[in-house]
Amino acid sequence: MTKSATLSDSTNGAGPAANRGKEPGLMQRLAAGPVICAEGYVFELERRGYLQAGAFVPVVLAEHPEVVEQLHMDFVRAGSDVTQALTYYVHREKLRVIGREKELVPMNRAALKIAKRVARRTNTLFAGDICNTNIYDPADSKALREVERIFAEQVGWAADAGVDYIVAETFSWGGEALLALEAIKKYSKVPAVVTFSVHREEQMREGWSPVETCQRLEAAGADVVGLNCHRGPATMMPILKKIRRAVQCVVGALPVPYRTTRQQPSFMSLTDRCCDNARAFPTGLDPFVCTRSEMGDFGREAFELGVRYLGICCGAGPHHIRALAEALGRHPEASKYSADMSKHAFFGTDKKIRPVQTEYRAKL
Ligand SMILES: [Zn+2]
User: Is residue 243 part of a domain?
Assistant: First the structure.
């Protein structure tokens, strides 16, 4: 019950949801222009104190679902065209690690229900999500069966919920990304967005290049292929250029909003004095955070390159998404409060700002 569930919703709802079914889906929206997808929920909820850095499992779904709903609303208000269910790391293996496997089904259902409610309320696309399992091992057939089971059940729950499409993300193994795509094709009828992560070395763990991985995913039927997480704009962009030239399908890019460098190209490799010159990941990354205008620049550059599925991953806040949306010529609801320094107490140019303040500017 994938598309039929979506369509039947359209006959029951009120307000914007009543038009559901006539709304364009992911592929129609992509044909008309870029689609913005906010991600990075887990990092943002960790900063707010609703889940633990380390395991990064969104237990907030069970403990404070209202916080998840508000964060979805904040990202939509900032310009996201998508409400993506927070099922990242709500899979069997991760819940096993934190000893909460029994909550697998209710937490997945809760994430999907919350995201669906927000998507229908805001006329955004409703996306399902599956991700890296952390047990994939091409040499271990038992582990591979478990990976397939994890993907099958999460895709099934997403399809039951009536998602418009499914995101498969943050894979370090190309083979795992292919298994995820296979599951989306087998257990749902919706489009598949498959993005993976490039660590320090510009290759997947089995040695495939990012270009080869995208070509394999495209050949296997992915609707959107590309990169997400781990690399910041500066070190993701050169790889995106190669990918855009090498595939025909839509390309996606969702970097982390951190100033990664040629020497330290991934956010896990960044080191800083604040952390005794050791890894800043995950809780010492603040000195590396990109400004909102840097994320806007990234969005503009990626769009000019031909990337059409755009977003920001771990570390993103609504202000980053708003800057990305504005760089693409959008004016989301939150743009009502985009900076206007004309009324600043010292830097303002407004006639109501007194000279006693503006004359002091140089001494600030
Ligand atoms: Zn991420």
Answer: yes
Cα distance between residue 173 and residue 131, in whole Å: 11
Contact predicate 154/87, CB 8 Å: yes
Distance 9 CA to ligand 1 centre (A): 31
Cα(356) to centroid(ligand 1), Å: 47
Cα 271 from Cα 310, distance rounded (Å) = 27
What's the burial of 109, exposed, middle or buried (CB within 10 Å: 0-12/13-18/19+)? middle
Three-state secondary-structure class, residue 232: coil
Reported as type and span, the H/E element at residue 73 is helix 65-77
Q: Structure pTM?
A: 0.93
Nearest to 246 by CA among 216, 272, 220, 267: 216
Write the DSSP assignment of 92-155 as a string of letters: HHHHHHTT-GGGHHHHHHHHHHHHHHHHHHHT-EEEEEEE--S---TT-HHHHHHHHHHHHHHH
For residue range 226-278, list pLDDT tens digits in order. 999 999 999 999 999 999 999 999 999 999 999 999 999 999 999 999 888 89
Rounded to the nearest angstrom, the distance between the alpha carbon of 245 and the centre of ligand 1 is: 24
In a domain, 42, yes or no: yes
Task: Give the whole-angstrom CA distance, residue 18 versus residue 20.
Answer: 5
Residue 262 sits in a domain whose CATH number is 3.20.20.330
Q: How confident is the model at residue 22 (pLDDT cuts 50, 70, 90)?
A: low
Between the CA of 138 and the centroid of ligand 1 the distance, in Å, is: 23
Cα of 99 to ligand 1 centre, how many Å? 23
Q: How far is the CA of 320 from the centre of ligand 1 (A)?
A: 14
Residue 102 domain-assigned (yes or no)? yes
The number of domains in the chain is 1
